[in-house]
Specification:
By secondary structure, the chain is α+β, with helices and mostly antiparallel strands. About 65% of the residues lie in helices and about 5% in strands. The strands form 3 sheets. Strands 6, 7, 8, 9 and 10 form a 5-stranded antiparallel β-sheet that branches.
Length: about 775
């Protein structure tokens, strides 16, 4: 693979203008496709094959208004007044009449008919039903509904509009979210000591993200894409796009500082660091594509969207980046005497050459020796010093690190999952005000009523009697506050019954009630003659959470199994893949613990702007496992491949760990900090889905990079010694050699093979 990527890098360097034009054409094509076909994001959560979804689809045949989404209008009278006062009643009536004529409204259920007026008469709740799902509402439909409340407001009532029709909006990057990019630029500038070098990873990341997001939005015109999928693709695209370019660029500058000719250095950088990028990107893509096994459409699209963005980032790093190297030429070489040049000298074990003949002529031999001595003294650099520290007492470090991670993971035992509702919306929004008012005035269950579909075994009046019997039976169940009058369709014998639970949509008591109705379904059918099934937004959310929980272990087995095989191929070792996987599981567990502590227990909730504590968004664990596994393998590959290079070169196990960590730690640290700040910047969003996902990824990257990869990995490898690189001879012969370290690039045969291409490059200039 290294040889093929080497040729690819040389070709991109040589045909730099063509490659640059091709990428600009791809970006322009994606933007044009978006402009032509447009796109619409769909935040509806569906789960084909579940009882709730099947009942929802059946219900739509006879009760389209009940099967569609709904909104709530809450009227609150001033102190000392009632909603039944003549002036207030007229204002409410005018509002509801106008609401009936609002776009796409199928039915309006007034408070007196629904029985939703508080005993003190101060608050009334009306329901507005649409015959379409939330995603099919026209732009401006909810705005039109809100305008109808003017009559009630003029009558002196306080009015708010919310309900299921209001969901999470599309995330629009703000200044705070873009702050991560600014911090990334600062980290790159410090790492490279050059604004030209620092700008390259950002430029390539923007090209990759722009192409991916424009293409995704264009595809959304024909495929269901959620705003969360867009947000995840944006976060990952920025993070990995910058990181992958950083790894390749860092290798290129190191080689230039050692005196390598820019054209050859570009090929070598893509052949070596590019091999690691391709492998790391492959692990991320495999983990994200693995979301298909969950068999939930919106999660499948989310995984495929993010995987496509990562794939684009890999392609950009191995094609567009070397083309930019060609445009920059020798200007990317660190200045002679700079810290970057001294680090390159120590990495090569020689006096730095400065990157060009001109730089070499300027640097005297004495100055070079002095620089080399200073570098050797400092280049025990932080990475080597830290590696020496953790390998001095490796067993103690391993025990302490594992104990700390297990302690962080303890809150994860209390993890509860649910889909977010309007109770997690930002304070001050209409849907949050409505949710809180309904909860205070009527009880939490009115924010998430259940719908029970009763299918009688006969039509006509007999079927209606069976539906009434089902409603009476449901009223007897514990945890039920109110059962509405059945809506009956005499032609089919079906009826829809609204059941208001004691608890809110995310409460365990509500899930217990759903389980109780389903558990008693056979008994209810024997007693009444009607088959019952539970549906509605709340029930669908419960089924989604159950499906995700059941899919977590199979998903983990598939993803971890595939990536273990890849790690085995790359490092040709039994210890490294197992160690990497155990470290990943510790990182994930610690991240789960932090999420529970913040978003369920409320630790630092105010500081992070958490609107409401409660169950964690149900697909966070599986998304976190998918993304964090791939990102963790990034650092594993770049760090351990550097150690393996030293092992292959010297055969000294402990020195290989220390020297390899010293060579790779600066770049890995910069990459982890960039990824952390990109993810952390999205924690500032008010989106109830994106915020916990961004937090868990930021925390997970920080723990995995600095605690697991930079601390636990060197300690374990030092303990195992030469055995870390052992592979049974028979297995060694069976496995293909991927040559991710680029060892073949140093063989004489490589030079002979590459000479014609190099000569062509030289002749073309």
């Amino acid at each position: 693979m290294a040889t093929w990527l080497y040729r690819l890098g040389l070709g991109a360097y040589r045909r730099r203008r063509l490659v640059l034009a091709a990428w600009l054409a791809v970006l322009a094509g994606a933007v044009c496709a978006l402009v032509v076909v447009g796109g619409k994001l769909d935040n509806e959560f569906t789960i084909p094959g579940s009882e709730s979804q099947q009942a929802q689809d059946t219900m739509a045949e006879d009760f389209p208004a009940a099967a569609g989404t709904s909104a709530q209008i809450v009227f609150t009278a001033p102190d000392g007044a009632k909603v039944t006062d003549p002036q207030a009643a007229r204002g409410i009536q005018r509002t509801l009449t106008a609401a009936q004529d609002a776009p796409q409204v199928a039915a309006v259920i007034p408070p007196d008919k629904a029985g939703t007026v508080t005993p003190d008469g101060r608050t009334a709740l009306a329901q507005v039903n649409y015959d379409v799902s939330r995603s099919d509402l026209d732009d401006g439909a909810l705005d039109s509904l809100e305008e109808t409340t003017r009559a009630a407001e003029e009558a002196g009532l306080e009015v708010s509009v919310g309900g299921q029709a209001y969901g999470n909006g599309v995330l629009t990057p703000s200044v705070l979210e873009l702050l991560g990019v600014v911090v990334a630029l600062a980290v790159l500038a410090i790492t490279f000591g050059s604004l030209l070098a620092a700008g390259m990873p950002l430029l390539t990341a923007f090209v990759g993200v722009g192409t991916g997001l424009a293409g995704l939005l264009a595809v959304s015109s024909g495929v269901t894409v959620s705003s969360t999928a867009l947000s995840l693709a944006l976060m990952l695209g920025l993070a990995v796009g910058i990181d992958y370019a950083l790894f390749v660029l860092s290798r290129h500058r190191t080689q230039l500082a050692q005196g390598m000719e820019p054209r050859e250095s570009a090929g070598r950088a893509v052949g070596t660091a590019g091999s690691a990028v391709v492998f790391a990107g492959t692990t991320v893509v495999i983990a994200l594509v693995g979301l298909i096994v969950v068999r939930i459409p919106f999660l499948t699209v989310m995984g495929l969207s993010a995987a496509a963005t990562v794939l684009i980032a890999v392609l950009v790093a191995v094609t567009l980046l070397p083309a930019l190297f060609g445009l920059a030429g020798a200007r990317l070489a660190p200045r002679p005497g700079s810290r970057a040049a001294r680090r390159a000298a120590v990495a090569a074990g020689e006096v730095p050459a400065g990157g060009t003949e001109k730089a070499t002529e300027k640097a005297t031999e004495e100055a070079a020796e002095k620089d080399s001595e200073k570098a050797a003294e400092k280049a025990s650099v932080m990475g080597q010093r830290w590696a020496r520290l953790v390998t001095r007492r490796p067993l103690l470090v391993v025990i302490g690190t594992v104990a700390a991670l297990v302690t962080l993971a303890l809150p994860a035992a209390d993890l509860r999952l649910a889909l977010p509702d309007n109770g997690t919306a930002a304070h001050g929004t209409s849907q949050r005000e409505t949710y809180d008012t309904v909860e205070d005035a009527f009880g939490p269950g009115f924010n998430g009523p259940l719908l029970v579909l009763a299918e009688a075994d006969t039509q006509g009046q007999a079927g209606q009697q069976q539906a009434a019997a089902v409603a009476g039976r449901l009223q007897e169940l514990p945890g039920v506050v109110k059962v509405g009058q059945p809506q009956y369709a005499p032609e089919s014998g079906r009826a829809v019954i609204q059941v208001v639970p004691e608890g809110g949509p995310q409460d365990e008591s509500t899930q217990d009630l759903v389980d109780a109705i389903r558990g008693d379904a056979a008994v209810i059918e024997r007693e009444t003659g009607a088959a019952v099934s539970v549906t509605g937004t709340t029930a669908i959310g419960i089924d989604v959470s159950d499906r995700l929980t059941a899919s977590l272990l199979p998903f983990a087995a598939v993803v971890v199994g595939l990536c273990l095989i890849l790690l085995l191929l790359v490092f040709r070792s039994l210890v490294v893949p197992v160690k990497a996987t155990v470290g990943f599981l510790l990182s994930v567990a610690a991240s789960f613990g932090a999420v529970v502590a913040v978003f369920q227990w409320g630790w630092l909730a105010d500081a992070l702007g958490v609107a409401r504590t409660g169950p964690v968004v149900s697909f966070l664990p599986i998304v976190l496992m998918a993304v964090l596994f791939g990102l963790a393998m990034d650092y594993e590959v770049f760090l351990v491949s550097s150690m393996r290079e030293e092992w292959v070169r010297t055969g000294r196990a402990r020195d290989a760990v220390i020297d390899g960590a010293g060579h790779a730690s600066r770049v890995v640290t910069a990459a982890a900090l960039i990824m952390f700040f990109v993810f952390a910047s999205f924690v500032t969003t008010e989106d109830a889905i994106v915020k916990p996902i961004a937090f868990s990824l930021a925390f997970g990257v920080l723990v995995d990079a600095f605690v697991v990869r930079m601390t636990l990995v060197p300690a374990v490898l030092a303990m195992v010694g030469r055995g870390a690189w052992w592979l049974p001879r028979g297995l060694d012969r069976l496995l293909p050699d991927l040559d991710i370290e680029g060892a073949r690039l140093h063989e004489p045969a490589r030079a002979e093979t590459a000479r014609p291409l190099t000569e062509i490059n030289a002749s073309s200039g």
